[in-house]
Every structure is written in structure tokens, then in C-alpha cells.
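Hey, can you fold this?
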Amino acid sequence: MSAKLDALKSDSYTEISQYRDQHFKGNRYEQEKLLKQSNTLYVGNLSFYTTEEQVHELFSKCGDVKRIVIGLDKVKKTACGFCFVEYYTRGDAENAMRFVNGTRLDDRIIRTDWDAGFKEGRQYGRGKSGGQVRIKALISCALTF
């Protein structure tokens, strides 16, 4: 009977995905631990024209947003399709994972994922030219884990 009730506690929307940041400084265990207690989300598939204000308007519906860091092209310093959203509490970040992931912002379906925490320098895209990595490359990286 208790096994059936445990399924009710499961919340697949807030589970940690299989994707891991390949540039994380530390081992897999440390990264996993940080992801499980993080208040920071990675937001992907943003339009290059989406503003910080638009991101704040959407994500603040789930709780108090501490800060937003828009991803930039390393060379041109222009937006390149992703950002980090940091909340004050884990509960607010979980609400964003539940309710914002897969919604439309600026005419694009955005995706959210847990992030181990923003550190300076991570706001720059990692593509060859300093822009964001193509989605195919992200998918293939995620499948290798």
C-alpha cells in the first residue's frame, strides 16, 4: 500500500534531468548535490529579442525572482537564446519548473532545467563563434549521459 502512496509524492516536473554541464568545476556527486538544492534555473530556446523584463514578467508569476542573467554572445555581447533565473526559494523555482517549462514566450516554446548556480562567465554562449550551442548539439550531449 505504501508503494502506491509514494507515487503520489512524485513530481516529474521538478525532477533533475539527465543533462549535466560539461564545464562544471567539481565531480558528478557535487554537481548532483547542488542541483537538488538549487534555486537557479537555466532557461533555453529564448528569442534573441526577448528582454530581461519579459523574462521577469513571466517567471515572477511563480515567486520572487532574485535575479535574471541573459546569455550573451561572447564576441558581439548580444543576446543568444538562453538565460538564468534565480529565485529566493527552492519552492518558487519548483513552481517555475512545473508551470513555466514548455510555455510560449516571445513566440517560442521555452524550456527550463535546474542549474547548479550561476557563476560569472557562464552568461556567454559556448558555440565556436561565442554564440549559443545549436540545439542538436545539446540533445546529443544530453544523450551521452
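Oh, and this one too while you're at it.
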Amino acid sequence: MPHKTALIVGSTGIVGQNLATLLATDPDWKIYGLARKPLATPGIIALAADLLDPASLATALAEVKPTHIYLATWLRQPTEAENIRVNSAMVRNLLSAVAPAGSVEHVALVTGLKHYLGPFESYGKGTLPATPFREEQGRLDVENFYYAQEDEVFSAATKHGFGWSVHRPHTIIGYALGNQMNMGVTLAAYATICKHTGRPFTFPGSATQWNSLTDMTDARQLAKHLLWASITPAARNQDFNIVNGDVFRWSWMWQRLAAWFDLEPAPLPAEITPLELQLADAAPIWAEIAAQHHLAEPNLAALISPWHTDADLGRPIEVVTDMSKSRKLGFLDYQPTDDSFFDLFTRLRAANLIP
């Protein structure tokens, strides 16, 4: 019989799906996946609820006694004030709903490097910590919904006596059906369109990103880190950066990605050419590609979100992350980022999502 019960909040997202896949390999876990529209997944008990509706949470979780909660969801709002109001309420409502069971041992919260960079509306502006980002650098003096989410977890942990961990990935890459905020899928679709039309495969970001060191986080690496921190006593009540463990420059990676699609990478342009601009007319092109190759998804908007990739690749500063804290405590997993891309592209092709 399972001895641990996981509640994955945001189970349809890229983090939640990959965490569920990892936990499902261990019979010691009973796994619940909570989302507004949960997916039917073997080995996962689907729960439907709205995190902003306490009544729906109370109904969905009435018989659930989780030992470990993994919070991996957020709702983007037009302003950071609204991000704070909505996303902190989601965490607060969830933790209040599970409190009566008295079963929770650990809560793991996934945030990200906006902890160090600031929210989208002040992204990369003002005084920022030096790179590589380290956990000891703490919070910026700006409003940030990540901080509000953390405070909800800390408050509930103090009240109810469970442990916690905070996980700060860089850009997440991995396979997840129905998840749009995935640079890998966006770049795969972009490369496919370039190959089909003969357009140049042009890096859409800044010269700083092109030339600086950077890193990324494979969703499988993040899943391992979440599991490790939630069952390792030394990781209790700690905040962590989590990346693949390698560093690269986009000037190198862009050539690697182009080669996978049999493309020639274009030189870095003099001006930033964001994907939102490059792909503004691409919906009918993708529909044509999908019809020609009998792809599973002819709607480009259902696959990609150029704004998210543009936000990452358009940064005007170097973004690279230190992993020493996790290493010192025993997390030693490593994932080459180019292999992360290639693994994803291979799975997208096998799923008939790209030709």
C-alpha cells in the first residue's frame, strides 16, 4: 500500500505533468492531480476544482489526506497588483482546504527567477543582484506575486506545523500536452515554419542573451528536485534554485537547434525581432503545414505563446543561476540542455505535433 500521498496542484501544466510521471514510477505514492480541467492520466486520481473557489476546493478535497503538496500553478493577470491578489488567494485557499485533514507533512512551491529579476512589468529594471543568482541574495524591494505566494506557504506552515521548500527554475523546457508556456514547443513550431516557408531562422532575442552565459531547467530535472526536497530532511524549510547544471550561450545553442531541423541559423540581426512579430501571420501557415503532414494540432495558438519566449530571450541582462546550495545538500542530478531540446523535439514528432 502507498505510504505517501501527493497532491499535485496544477497537474495539467508542464511541471505537474512531469512530476506526476516521476511519482507514478514509485508504488509508494498515491497521486492526486488537481486542476480546473484535469487530464485523465493512468495512475493519477484526477480532481477538478477552481483554486479561487473555496467551495469547489472543499468538495474536491473532502476525502483527500495529502502528505505532500506540490504547488505548480499560477494565473497571469494584467498588473502585478492583480497577480498578487489572485495568486496568493489561490495558495491560501488550497492550504485552507487541506488543513482539516491534518495530514500535510511538506508543501513544495514552484516559483522562478522573477524572484531575482522582478515581475514582468519591471522585468530586468532597477538594481538587480549580481549573477549568478544565489538564494542568499533574497528579495527585491518591489511588489512580486512570488513573494506573496511564499508568504502564504510560510504562514500556513507556522500555523499547521508542516515543512516547506521553494523551487526557482529558470526557463522550463519539457513535454506537456495542453501547456503553451513552453519555449521548446514554441521554438519547434517556429523552426518548422521557417523550414516550410524558407524564412531565415532568426534568433528573436537580445544581443545580451545571444552573447551571455545562461541556463535552463528541464521539467524532468525540476520534478526530481521537487521530490528530493520534499523527502530530504536537510532540505526542509529551504529555498532553492534549480537548473540543469550546464551553462551555454544562445549563439552556440541556436546553431544546435537549427541543425536538428536541417536549417542554417541566421546571423544575429541588428535589431531585436521578437517572435510575436515574426509569427504574427503564421496561423494560416501552420494550418497549411498541419494539413500537409496530417498533424494532430492545426491551431498554432493552442501550441505556443510567443510572448513568453520573447520575455525570456529579450532580457537585457545576463541570467545565470548558482546551484551550490542544492549540491551541498546532496542533489547531484544533471541534464544537458541541448539534449533537453532534442528529447522534446523527438517526442513532439512522435506525437505528430511537428512534422
